[in-house]
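Re: the request from the purification team.
They wanted to know what the chain is likely to look like in 3D before they choose a buffer screen. I agreed to run a prediction and write the result into the notebook, where they can find it.
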Amino acid sequence: MARFAQSIKGVWFILKTLPVFIVRQTPYRNADLILTGLSPEGFLTIHARGVLKITSPFHAMVALGSWSDFTINETKKKAYLEKANLIKFAPLPDQEGLIASIVMQVILQILLLDENADMAASMYPRLVGVRNGMQSALSTYTTFLLQYLDVQGVPMIVDYCVQCQSKLKIVGLNPQLGGFICQNCQAKVSSHLLPAEALVLMRKLKTIPFGEPVNNSTLKLLLPLIHQHFNFHLDVQLEGFKTIETLIQ
């Protein structure tokens, strides 16, 4: 990251270069965009002048989900885009890339739930990991969801039964209670019964690196339950969850 200060006609500004993910675009005037980007410094609001013009060289750099090095002219009131160099474009919809594109859009929606939080800067390296792991989009997406829930303080409990804390005879999962249910508690509380391979995969997904391939047929059993947990414990309803579930059926 590079930065230096300059003064023109007595007005000081900071010129800095840093990597930015574009998470939101808002049209402004005739050909401008107000961009929301996630950087190592947290969320930034950037005024990109003239980027909607046909002659603008920055179309790819400011697309939703793109990851670019931005040179920003920052005054006391606003930050303006001066230059941009593409690091990686948003995933393109070809074969598996369609799921990757939808997954990336949902992750951007999730990031915007906490736009002003102090932890925003800590989410940047996670997003870098997500973007570099899009060759296995579903497993990367699921790992991101589980890590995000951990950061928010509402983790899915996968080490023991959430009802009695037993580590033995785990047979299912209850999204509202927040995790695994054992055989003894199954009669007392409802849960979604899961095959052994799905329970093993749920534990694995909490710790695997972004991009590690997994059995997608097993993953399809888990994703709707993780979505339910997310919606219930964070009190949100993201339409993108239903889109992903429909795509993987």
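For the purification team: The two ends are 43 Å apart (CA to CA).
Please add any questions underneath this entry.
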